[in-house]
Amino acid sequence: MPSRKDLKKQKEKTSQALIQAALQLCAEEGYASLSLRSVARKAGIAPTSFYRHFREIDEMGVAMVAQAKEVMDNCLAQARKKMTFPAIKKSDSPAHLLKSIECMTRPFAETFINFLKKNNQLLHLFFQERTGSSEAMRKAIFDATDQLTELLAEDLKQLSESSKNKLGDVRLISETMLTIVSSSGMEMLVHPKAKPGDITGDITGRAIQKLNLLLLGALIYE
Amino acid sequence: MPSRKDLKKQKEKTSQALIQAALQLCAEEGYASLSLRSVARKAGIAPTSFYRHFREIDEMGVAMVAQAKEVMDNCLAQARKKMTFPAIKKSDSPAHLLKSIECMTRPFAETFINFLKKNNQLLHLFFQERTGSSEAMRKAIFDATDQLTELLAEDLKQLSESSKNKLGDVRLISETMLTIVSSSGMEMLVHPKAKPGDITGDITGRAIQKLNLLLLGALIYE
DNA sequence: TGTACATCAGTGAACGCGCGTTCACTGATGTAC
DNA sequence: TGTACATCAGTGAACGCGCGTTCACTGATGTAC
């Protein structure tokens, strides 16, 4: 018994096919090289049908960012579950402090970069177009990033308070953590050859070290 | 008395006109949106003349990166002259350590971000296409970035040794410093509205704080 | 129950446009003898 | 000195192609009466 609701679902399915096709093309050729026709072709519909779903390419782009944002939220929530921050004393040795810090940084970096590998299309879009040429995309990604940063900042604050390890400007730290980890993630997407065994190739390990230094500094600074 | 040499110079001048036109278009529309014809048009030559200078767009792209690299080298050299790193003792208070650290981070960030503002076209290209869709561009930028990172790492090592402040993995620190400062720089290019007075808008100031935390951590960690 | 009408995702033909690339050409310069 | 030839940056016409967009259409579904 097909109905109006089924029709709506069918339409949604086609919209999703368009978005998935676009994400794939985007990872291959870049967002700027997307064309309405190539997306429609890949999604298996006629070029003109595109207009039944989006007014223009950028409208689809914004929908793509929204989807990427959801994935990132999940990623962050999952990372958050694994992050702990055992209490330390300031008089502890740097090695001791690091142990505590790495209980945050390691799950954070590993979860994040794993997600990145699995959802490379979504996240490539997210980070590449942050500074891309489409104003609409930049705005959408900026807003999403801002929310994400705030979320992480709150997590940091909570971790910091519950363990009585003071962390100062959590927003600043949150920004930097995301910068470091996304930069590492992009590096990994661009050079997939690098393996965990390599001296300079263990991108995740190096990301963790970078985060460690940052948080060690933040901890000392108060 | 025009001669063969003058002809060569004329050709070089036209090549430069092409590159400059391309950089401008690139900052407006993105590298992926460049077309041979639009570049030639902006440079004031016939489309077909483009082939007298470059075999294809990407060959010009690589030349653009080489030019950007030179600017970056100058920038780094200029920053290096201003960076100092007064000796500290580990027992000093964090505030003391910070004073010393900021003698490096402030000139570094300020010089870099100033350069970025003046040469925004060159540097937009440099950082945007690092993860772009053209393989040739990615490779060219990766090589250039690698050299730049190494240069900064050597500077750090030298500063660290001459002041007897140990710094550990200078390559890792160098990478992170460039990541932080280029991320801030891109943020500034994309949101030129943010002014030094703003609470969250003082991008340079925030970049310095981020670098401070990183180096404070590196210093403590040994 | 039947008949007329509304909605709407998807279609295929057609349009004008900017693109990359080819080709044979120009006209200024320098070289051989 | 003159004459024939080589080099080479820049040109304009022409090509075939993929693009975004318009338009009138289809055919399945639901609604009014």
Task: Write a structural description.
The structure is a homodimer of 222-residue chains. Chain A is mostly helical. Chain A has two domains: 1-55, Homeodomain-like (Arc Repressor Mutant, subunit A); 57-221, Tetracycline Repressor, domain 2 (Orthogonal Bundle), CATH 1.10.357. The first copy, chain A, contains eight helices and no strands. In chain A, helix 1 packs across helix 2 and helix 1 (4-29) packs across helix 5 (120-128). The radius of gyration of chain A is 21 Å and the shape is elongated. The A-B interface holds A 28-30, 32-33, 94, 97-98, 124, 127-128, 130-133, 138, 142, 169, 171-173, 175-176, 179-180, 183, 186, 189-191, 200, 206, 209-210, 212-218, 220-222 and B 28-30, 32-33, 94, 97-98, 124, 127-128, 130-133, 138, 142, 169, 171-173, 175-176, 179-180, 183, 186, 189-191, 200, 206, 209-210, 212-218, 220-222. The structure holds a DNA duplex (33 and 33 nucleotides).
